[in-house]
Amino acid sequence: MEKEKHNVPNWKARMTDRMKYYVCFCKAAAFIAGAILCYSVVNYNVVGVLATYFTDAFNQDAIHKSAVLVNVLGGLQVVVVACSWAYSRSFGFRKIIIFSTAINILGLLMLYLSASNRIPKTNFVPYIFVCVLIAVGKFGGSSLLERVLLDQLISGHENIEQIDRKRAQCRINVWLVIAKVLVFIIPFDGRWSTKFWISMCIIGGAGFISWVSSCFFHGGHPASCTKTHPETSGECNLKKDHETLPPRLPIKNGEIQPIKPSSNAGAEAQQKSPSPICSMKQVNVADHLLRMIPMWSTFIVFGLVISTAETFFNLQDDSMVAIVTTANFLIAKDALKVVAGSLCGWFLGSRRLSRREQNFVLKLIICVGMIISVICPGLARQVEVQRLKNAHKMASLDEKVPMSDWCMAPLFGLWGLMEGFSIRGLDEFFNYHVSKSVEDSGSEIYNKIPIAMGYLLSAVCVSVCKGWFGDTLNKSRLDKYYLMISVLALINLCWFFFVTIFYPTKEEEEAGVELQEIKVEVILVETQ
């Protein structure tokens, strides 16, 4: 009986600690989550399905032009995210949010004028400019808000020294899940002109909520919040990088102290003008990024598969009898992506793995996503073959195919799992192989570069295979295009196996770094 009495409060204490681990409430987080909700509503219901509007807007080569526009929009994500983060440090969070909101509203306004027949639809060049504006609003506003939310959940903790980045990421997932669930409740239907007009109002509300949230920031500015956290601060990262410096270089207060020259070399030292040399931190960062190039090269075709799914899955769903909306499919896809990423994080955190085992597990996680990237376009081809058979039985090819869009559910599910395993595995692989100084921003910027290149490669592939695409999807041969993407994904999987076999472990990398540090030490001593 005494043991049971002791177990009850212990169980309650564990549940309370677990709730505190995942849940953190602060005013700034509530406002930022509301702004993210507004962006999510527009992204799922309008921006995520722009391919269907572009197809209706053009009279000739509609499928080809809409695919190129969607790929251009996706390929701009790296540039926009990098610029928004860089300028937010210089100009502040409020100015960047106001700028991105204004640009997003301008892009939606041009789409509204086009949908309401107030400007001509046939010109292709203005739509490229519209895609640039929408990309600035989509990737500049929402990505910056998620980073600021992460900073606020870290700085809002009672004892910042007791919270790590994984715990803060769990807390941000709770807020994001609440925002994504509320998207189901908000109705969003009607003509395209009505959708664009409502989207402008929602994005304006998101900008206002984001501006108000800055009044409740801990530390006043998002950038200042990261400085208070030992895991994300520049000082801590600089000290961790200094731990790898050669022992002969003295360090005091986080700075390298110059070595005093000997008295015999006084005249010679004055005559010599030492050439500028990169610091050890810069040398290590460049070396680690260069080592990531083989793994990044495997994600270019992976980005091609993602861009293909983002472009043509929406068009396939729109050409069938709508039982489930495309927005709901996209939300389910992102939910599976979060689940797959969480499973990867749980598996890596629940086991004590050696460095060699951890390196193998990370490669295995990425491999699962790569295998799904081969299966996904192959299965999409089978669905398209069946859809074309039903389409050719109809009297007119301009009507919707009498086929339920539930057959698209496995495709969206594989799409989410593919992104969840591979992208989360790449982020963990990047954090495992690089220094702490570039770990925070690396997964958000560097890892998106090959995927963005995949979007641009998709635009090239669609242009090369222009003869397979007609004015409508029923008049196109999308099944041939899916077959080509499956073959490229299979070749990319073989290349991934080759890279993972010959990719060095972290112990081998550290041995190479130590040898390089000895060489840099010799150069520094000689120049001094």
Description:
The chain has helices at 2-22, 27-45, 50-57, 62-75, 77-91, 93-115, 125-155, 165-185, 192-213, 222-227, 234-242, 266-271, 280-291, 293-297, 299-318, 326-350, 355-392, 409-433, 439-445, 448-464, 478-502, 506-527; strands spanning 251-252, 255-256, 320-321, 401-404. By secondary structure, the chain is mainly α. The strands form two sheets. Strands 1-2 form a two-stranded antiparallel ribbon. It has a two-stranded parallel sheet with strand order 3-4. The chain starts with a helix and ends with a helix. Residues 1-8, 158-162, 220-257, 259-277 and 510-520 have low confidence and may be disordered.
Rg to the nearest angstrom? 26 Å
Order of helices and strands: HHHHHHHHHHHEEHHHHEHHEHHHHH
How many helices does DSSP assign?
A: 22
Cα end-to-end separation: 74 Å
The structural class is: mainly alpha
Query: What form results from the Cα inertia axes?
Result: globular
Beta percentage is under 5%
| Unreliable residue runs | 1-8, 158-162, 220-257, 259-277, 510-520
What number is the mean pLDDT? 75
Number of strands: 4
What profile does the largest beta sheet have?
2 strands, antiparallel
User: What percent of the residues sit in helical stretches (DSSP H or I)?
Assistant: over 70%
Give the neighbour order of strands across the main sheet.
1-2
List keywords for this structure.
two-stranded parallel ribbon, 528 residues
Outline the fold blueprint.
Layout: H1 2-22, H2 27-45, H3 50-57, H4 62-75, H5 77-91, H6 93-115, H7 125-155, H8 165-185, H9 192-213, H10 222-227, H11 234-242, E1 251-252, E2 255-256, H12 266-271, H13 280-291, H14 293-297, H15 299-318, E3 320-321, H16 326-350, H17 355-392, E4 401-404, H18 409-433, H19 439-445, H20 448-464, H21 478-502, H22 506-527
Parallel strand pairs: 3-4
Antiparallel strand pairs: 1-2
Helix pairs in contact: 2-7, 2-8, 2-9, 3-4, 4-7, 4-15, 4-20, 5-6, 5-7, 6-7, 6-9, 7-8, 8-16, 15-17, 15-20, 15-21, 16-18, 17-18, 17-21, 18-19
